[in-house]
Design brief:
Number of strands: 18
Number of domains: 2
Number of helices: 5
Radius of gyration: 21 Å
Shape: globular
Structural class: alpha+beta
Helix content: 10-25%
CATH class of the largest domain: Alpha Beta
CATH superfamily of the largest domain: DNA ligase/mRNA capping enzyme
CATH architecture of the largest domain: 2-Layer Sandwich
Largest sheet: 6 strands, mixed
Order of helices and strands: EEEEHEHEEHEHEEEEEHEEEEE
Distance between the termini: 45 Å
Length: 323
């Protein structure tokens, strides 16, 4: 597809650039789909972002529509060097660990959630879709065409913006290899489908372990002074929050102190859930914990839950909903 120009002699109309696009979200399924109309990618463990490139400015928007440009200066700087007049890139911001795997905890430290030695420059944006380019809205095009336009822009780059590689492979084998290498999972996408905001079957995610987000409604202090013993977690049920158990592992000694200090600033005497526990300290339900777990108990509690990171509930973090 030829890029559109701003000249009035163009036959093709210029599409107005959207101020914001609700992202396409993947539906969780148990196993990878089969067939030639599916392509696969690594499931990145980071923050979903849209990079808007416009004449004279770059905006970086979160999934919930918040402008976080200042939190990702290296991505914004690299976006200015892509050589396009206007574009919207869809992708994920991550920090890679020593094994080359995305690490959500390291990402939070890199943009200042907690004190850290991780530099902000370590954040990398893996672009996996192109929604707008030089005056043309690309969402109506099938994924294979959007990828064809995306790859020349970002493929082979080693800067802050890189290409999320697409894999044409057997889904079951790719999933097995991904889990064996300690990745979070994989994403499957229908190559002939246009871009559609919201959750649908055309994008699917298959995770190596169960992982969801739950509202932090309180904590239990550790027997070690100043440390965190256990997070108290809740899921959504209609308009209410329901207690689903706790999480007492997944953090270092340093992070335990940092989480305890953060939560102590949010203590409330009005619990968000109907729960009575002797040592519970209840907090305002404004933070969301990413939790990895094995299963649910018969009485509706998380089994073997392990903490992976926190998000702000205000940023449209997807809290697990009970049916």
């Amino acid at each position: 597809m030829a890029r559109a120009s701003s000249k009035k002699t163009d036959v093709a109309p210029i599409d107005p650039m959207p101020a914001r696009i609700d992202p396409c979200l993947a539906t969780l399924v148990d196993k990878p789909p089969k067939g030639p109309d599916w392509a696969f990618e690594v499931k990145w463990d980071g923050y979903r972002l849209a990079v808007h490139i416009e004449p004279g400015r770059v905006r970086i928007l979160t999934r919930g529509g918040y402008d976080w440009t200042e939190r990702f200066p290296s991505i914004a700087d690299d976006a200015r060097r892509l050589g396009v007049k206007t574009a919207i890139l869809d992708g994920e911001a991550v920090v890679l660990n020593d094994q080359g795997r995305s690490d959500f905890g390291m990402l939070q430290r890199a943009f200042g959630r907690f004190p850290s030695a991780v530099e902000a420059e370590a954040i990398v944006f893996y672009a996996f879709d192109l929604l707008y380019l030089d005056g043309r809205d690309l969402r109506r095009l099938p994924l294979r065409e959007r990828r064809r336009l995306l790859e020349p822009l970002v493929a082979g780059r080693e800067g802050a913006i890189r290409l999320s590689e697409e894999v044409q492979a057997d889904g079951d084998e790719f999933f097995r290899v991904a889990c064996a290498h300690g990745l979070e999972g994989i994403i499957a996408k229908r190559v002939e489908k246009p871009y559609r905001s919201g959750r649908g079957e055309w994008w699917q995610k298959i995770t190596c372990k169960r992982r969801d987000s739950f509202v932090i409604v309180g904590f239990e202090p550790s027997t070690v002074p100043g440390h965190l013993g256990r997070l108290l977690l809740a899921a959504r049920k209609g308009e209410e929050l329901v207690y689903v158990g706790g999480c007492g592992t997944g953090w270092s000694n340093e992070l335990s102190r940092e989480l305890r200090k953060l939560l102590e600033e949010m203590v409330t005497k009005s619990p968000a859930v109907n729960l009575r526990r002797k040592n519970a300290v209840f907090t305002e339900p404004v933070l969301v914990a990413e939790v990895e777990y094995r299963a649910w108990t018969d009485d509706g509690k998380l089994r073997h839950a392990s903490f992976k990171g926190i998000r702000e509930r205000a940023d449209d973090a997807a809290v697990f909903a009970l049916t």
